C-alpha cells in the first residue's frame, strides 16, 4: 500500500505498519516508561481483567483493562507535564485547529486521477470521522477549474429568464431575506465510480470519500423565484451558473427548485469555505454534487433543459447497449462501513464497535443491516439520531471478532422502501461502464492477520 | 465602541464604521468600477425594483435589486479574474480554513476579565454564526490552568471507587466500545453573568458567547460503570477529574451519569480540539460547562457529593439572604437574538430576517416568541429543524423596520412548559450577585441611526 493511502487517525482500530504513520502515532517504549518485562505483566493483567469485565458487562472480549492497584496508580501518579504546569492561554488560536497528533487525517488527492490538480478531486477521510457532521476543513473537493477566495462585496447573483422582474442581488441583500438551516449530505455522482470496473480502491477514503454532510443556511430558491415573479406556466427548468473559470452550468427541474433547494452562504455555522463555493452555492438536496453549483452567480428560468457540457458530455451513465442515461441526478440509497475499512488493521480478537454511514437522495434512512459473512446473515444496526431527510445517518453495531476471515457488508433501506443493491444486481442492469451512480453494497474482507481489504463479492 | 469588540463578519446586517473593519470588508469605489453618478442611478433603480418586488412577493421593503438590463449585465459581463483564470488545485489545503475575508470572525478574550489568560474565557462570535452547529475553531474556551495538546497514546482513564473492578482504559480500548453520537449545547454557568449587576456588555459575543453546540461521539458513562461493576446500592455520585494542571473535579449525580452522560472523544465529526479537552472529555447534557471535565482522566464512584473547590468556593449562586445555591447545575431555558444584536448597525429601513438561538437544559425547545416593542407584543418565530433534546434550536422571524427606535427580545418555552423569565423576575428571587445561571430575556435596542445596543428593560 502506498504512503499516499490515507491512514486512519490515532486510536481507531488499527495497528499501524511501521513505515505508515509519522512517529507521533507510534507507541514509544521510552515514552510510556514501560520495559518489556513490565509490558508482559500488564498483558496478563489485561487478559484476566477483560475476562472479568466480559462476565460482568455482557460485552465479550471488550476493551482490555489493567488492575487499578498496579499499573493504574503507576500511570496516574507519575504526573506528566500537562498535569503540573500552566498551559496555553485562551484565544492563543483565535481560530482553532485540530491536535498536532491528528495531522495525518487529511483530505487527499487520488494521484493520477486527472491530468490537472485544479480539475480534480480530494477525498474526505471517512475512516477517521464520527457522527454525521463533516468538519468543514475535511469536506471533499471537486473543482472543474480550481478554487478561488472571491471577495463577497463584489459578488452578485442574477435571477433572469422567464421572470417578470430580472434581479441582481448583493450578498448583503440576500442575507436579509428569510433564511432556513438544514442538514444534508452532498455526494459526487462519481463516488465509488472505480468499483464499476472492478478496481478495488484500497481505502474508504478513496472508495466513498466524495461524500460530506453539513448544516447549510441560506434562502430558499423558491423565495428568489417568487420575488422575481417567475413564469409558473412556462418555467419548467432552471439553469444554475458558477462564477469560477469553469463557468459550470447545470439544469434543475422546477419541481426540485421549488421544493428544498437553497441558495446558501452558511455551512456548519460559518460562511462557506472557499473550496466549497464561498460566498454562495446552490444546495440541491438528494441530487449529485455537480448540481450544487459553487460561486453561484446566475439563475435562469427556462422552458426546457439546457443540455450543457456537464450534462451532455459528462455526468451521463453509459449503459450496456451504448445508450447514455442523462439527468440521472438522484443519489440513490447507499451505505458503507467506515470502521473497520480497507487499510485498517484490527488490533486483536474480541469486541469491536462497527460503524458506518447511510444516506438516500429520496428521503430518510429507515434501517441498516450489517453482515459479517459476506451477505448470508444480516443483523440490524443501531441508528444514531437525528435521522434526517437527505442527510447522512450514522449506524453502529456490536461485533466480536473470532480471529477468522470475515467479510463485512452494510445494506441500507430508505423511507421509500428501496433496498441498497448488490454490485451484481446493478451490473446486470447497467453494465460496467457507468462511472456514475454506483450505490452498491461495499464489502470489506478482514484477514486472519487483522488486515482489512476492499473486495468484490460475486 | 472599542476595537476589541468583535464586529460581525461581512454581509450581515451591518454598515461597518470606517475605522472598524479591515479594508477587505469595505466597499471600494475603485474596485466595483462605479462612480458616484452611476451609484446615484443604481440607488434609484433599487428603490423602484424593491417596490415592485415587495408587491410581487409580499415581502415589504425586502432586499433591493437592480434592473438586470442595466447594472446587472454590467456586473456580469465585466468578468473578474476568478471567472477567467485557473484557480487553486484540490488539496492545496489538506485541512481547510475560512476565507481570508472572514478573518474578523474570531473567538475573543474579554480584556481584564481574569488576571491570567490561561485561566480565562474566550467568547464565541454568535453574531456571525448560522444554524446550530458551532464551528470547532470558534468554540468558546474556558480554561482553569491553560490548554494542552496531550499525546493520546499516553492518556489513560481510570474508573474506580465503589466498583467491583477498578479499571484503566487506553484511548484505543475506549474507542472499541459501543459508541453513540449526539448533538448538545454546552454553556458556561457564568454565561450572561455580567448582566446580573446591570453591566450592559456591548455585543452578543460577550453577553452570551460562552455557548456552543456540537455533535459529540463517545461511549456512554453508564457502559463504563457497568463494565467496572459499580455498586448500585451505595453509588450515588460520581467524581470526574481532568488531567490538566487545574486538576478540575466535579461531582455528578448518579441519575445523570446513568442517563445521557458521555465519555467523548469526537466533536463535530473529528477528534476533540485541544482547547476542548483532547483526547477525552465528559459530556453532561443540560448541565453547566464546568462539569464537562476536559482531559478526563478519572471517574470515581462515591456515596456523597465531594464538595470540591469548584463546587464549594466557585460555581455557587449567592442569594439575597447571603446563602449560596450549590450544585445548581442545570442550564434553564434561555434564548437570545443574535442578528441584529449589540454592535451591529442596520443598513436601512425595510425587511430583515431576525435570527437567534434557544436552548434548555431540561429538554427540547417548544416555542420561541419575539417582541419588537420591549415585551408588549409577541409573535411566534419559525424554528429550524432538527429540534433536539438539550441542543441549540435556531429560530428566524420576519421583521420590517420602519426606522423608528425598537426594542427586540426573544422568549423561549421548553418542553416542560417553563417560560424564560424577565430579568426583574429573576432578580426578585435571586438578587443581583448570583454571577451564575442568568437565563433572563435579553433586550437589544435599535436606535434611529440603525445602531443596536444592549439595554436592560425594567
Strand content of chain A: 25-35%
Oligomer class: homodimer
Helix content of chain A: 10-25%
Alpha plus pi helix count of chain A? 9
Main sheet of chain A, how many strands, which sense, barrel? 5 strands, mixed
CATH class of the largest domain in chain A: Alpha Beta
In total, the number of domains of chain A comes to 3
CATH topology category name of the largest domain in chain A: Sulfite Oxidase, Chain A, domain 2
Region (Disordered) (chains A, B): 80-112
Cofactor (chains A, B): Mo-molybdopterin
Domain Moybdenum cofactor oxidoreductase dimerisation (chains A, B): 333-442
InterPro entries (chains A, B): Ig_E-set, MoCF_OxRdtse_dimer, Mopterin_OxRdtase_euk, OxRdtase_Mopterin-bd_dom, OxRdtase_Mopterin-bd_sf, Sulfite_DH_SoxC, TAT_signal
Report on this model:
The structure is a homodimer of 458-residue chains. With 458 residues, chain A is an alpha+beta fold. Chain A has 3 domains: 29-82, no CATH class; 108-325, Sulfite Oxidase, Chain A, domain 2 (Alpha-Beta Complex); 334-455, Immunoglobulin-like. The first copy, chain A, is built from 9 helices and 25 strands. The first copy, chain A, has helices at residues 29-32, 36-57, 68-77, 171-174, 204-208, 221-228, 254-259, 309-312, 423-430; strands spanning 66-67, 108-109, 121-123, 141-142, 156-161, 167-170, 180-187, 211-220, 237-242, 249-253, 262-267, 270-271, 281-283, 296-302, 317-318, 324-325, 334-339, 350-359, 365-371, 379-380, 382-383, 393-401, 406-414, 443-446, 452-455. In chain A, the strands form 6 sheets. Chain A has a 5-stranded mixed sheet. In chain A, strand 15 and strand 16 (324-325) form a beta hairpin. Mean pLDDT of chain A is 86; it is low at 1-69. At the A-B interface, helix 2, strand 1, helix 3, strand 2 and strand 4 of A face helix 2, strand 1, helix 3, strand 2 and strand 4 of B. Strand 1 of chain A pairs antiparallel with strand 6 of chain B.
Amino acid at each position: 500500500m502506498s504512503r499516499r493511502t490515507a491512514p486512519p487517525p490515532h486510536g481507531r482500530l488499527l495497528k499501524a505498519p511501521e513505515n505508515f504513520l509519522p512517529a507521533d502515532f507510534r507507541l514509544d517504549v521510552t515514552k510510556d516508561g514501560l520495559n518489556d518485562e513490565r509490558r508482559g505483566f500488564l498483558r496478563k493483567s489485561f487478559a484476566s481483567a477483560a475476562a472479568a469485565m466480559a462476565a460482568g458487562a455482557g460485552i465479550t472480549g471488550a476493551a482490555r483493562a489493567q488492575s487499578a492497584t498496579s499499573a493504574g496508580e503507576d500511570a496516574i501518579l507519575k504526573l506528566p507535564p500537562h498535569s503540573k504546569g500552566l498551559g496555553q492561554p485562551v484565544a492563543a488560536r483565535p481560530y482553532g485547529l485540530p491536535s498536532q497528533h491528528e495531522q495525518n487525517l487529511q483530505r487527499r488527492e487520488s494521484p493520477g486521477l486527472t491530468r490537472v490538480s485544479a480539475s480534480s478531486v480530494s477525498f474526505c477521510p471517512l475512516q477517521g470521522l464520527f457522527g454525521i457532521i463533516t468538519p468543514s476543513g475535511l469536506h471533499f473537493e471537486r473543482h472543474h477549474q480550481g478554487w478561488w477566495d472571491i471577495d463577497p462585496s463584489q459578488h452578485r447573483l442574477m435571477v433572469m429568464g422567464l421572470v417578470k422582474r430580472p434581479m441582481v442581488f448583493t450578498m448583503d441583500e440576500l442575507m436579509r431575506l428569510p433564511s432556513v438551516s438544514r442538514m444534508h449530505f452532498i455526494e459526487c455522482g462519481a463516488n465509488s465510480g472505480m468499483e464499476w470496473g472492478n478496481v478495488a480502491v484500497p481505502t474508504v477514503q478513496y472508495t466513498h470519500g466524495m461524500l460530506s454532510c453539513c448544516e447549510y443556511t441560506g434562502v430558499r430558491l423558491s423565495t428568489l423565484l417568487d420575488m422575481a415573479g417567475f413564469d409558473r406556466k412556462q418555467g419548467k427548468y432552471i439553469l444554475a451558473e458558477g462564477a469560477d473559470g469553469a463557468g459550470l452550468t447545470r439544469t434543475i427541474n422546477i419541481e426540485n427548485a421549488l421544493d428544498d433547494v437553497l441558495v446558501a452562504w452558511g455551512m456548519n455555522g460559518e460562511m462557506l469555505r472557499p473550496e466549497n463555493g464561498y460566498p454562495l452555492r446552490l444546495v440541491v438536496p438528494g441530487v449529485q454534487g455537480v448540481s450544487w453549483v459553487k460561486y453561484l452567480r446566475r439563475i435562469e428560468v427556462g422552458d426546457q433543459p439546457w443540455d450543457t457540457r456537464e450534462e451532455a458530455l459528462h455526468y451521463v451513465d453509459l449503459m450496456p447497449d451504448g445508450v447514455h442515461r442523462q439527468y440521472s441526478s438522484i443519489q440513490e440509497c447507499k451505505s458503507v462501513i467506515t470502521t473497520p475499512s480497507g487499510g485498517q488493521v484490527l488490533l486483536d480478537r474480541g469486541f469491536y464497535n462497527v460503524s458506518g454511514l447511510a444516506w438516500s437522495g429520496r428521503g430518510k434512512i429507515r434501517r441498516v443491516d450489517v453482515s459479517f459473512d459476506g451477505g448470508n446473515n444480516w443483523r440490524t444496526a443501531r441508528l444514531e439520531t437525528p435521522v434526517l431527510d437527505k442527510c447522512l445517518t450514522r449506524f453502529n453495531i456490536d461485533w466480536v471478532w473470532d480471529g477468522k476471515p470475515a467479510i463485512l457488508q452494510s445494506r441500507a433501506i430508505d423511507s421509500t422502501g428501496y433496498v441498497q443493491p448488490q454490485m451484481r444486481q446493478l451490473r446486470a442492469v447497467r453494465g460496467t461502464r457507468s462511472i456514475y451512480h454506483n450505490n452498491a453494497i461495499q464489502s470489506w474482507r478482514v484477514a486472519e492477520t487483522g488486515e482489512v481489504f476492499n473486495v468484490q463479492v460475486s
